[in-house]
Amino acid sequence: MMHRFPIRIYYEDTDLAGIVYYANYLKFIERARSEWLRELGVDQSALQREGLVFAVRRVEADYLSPARFDDLLDVQSRLHGLSPARIVLDQAIARDGQLLFQARVTLACVGGAGRPARIPARVASLLRDADLAGI
To answer: What global pTM score does this model have?
Structure first.
């Protein structure tokens, strides 16, 4: 399944050299993940009230080419793997089809006191169904 999320680069996203500050790419892929889950029907606020959150456990990132002020970027997210307590996503950022950034992100489902928890069955089902449907 592939999810796409557009991001416009504003002046505040850039550094003194006029290119996107490296840490902002992590913010962009975070926003895209949140929108992906929302569009699948996963209510992260409801999960939080149940004492569950998705925490980033690992990020492997490659910065390939810089983005600049006023660029319109396409953040792409694709499910790579799903286990009882983890979601692994491949995420990429492109400008006009040119790959600028790519990352593999591992999310852990975490319960009270930061302990690992099982992803709720309804959430895992939404993720599997969307993946099978190619959404």
So the answer is: 0.92
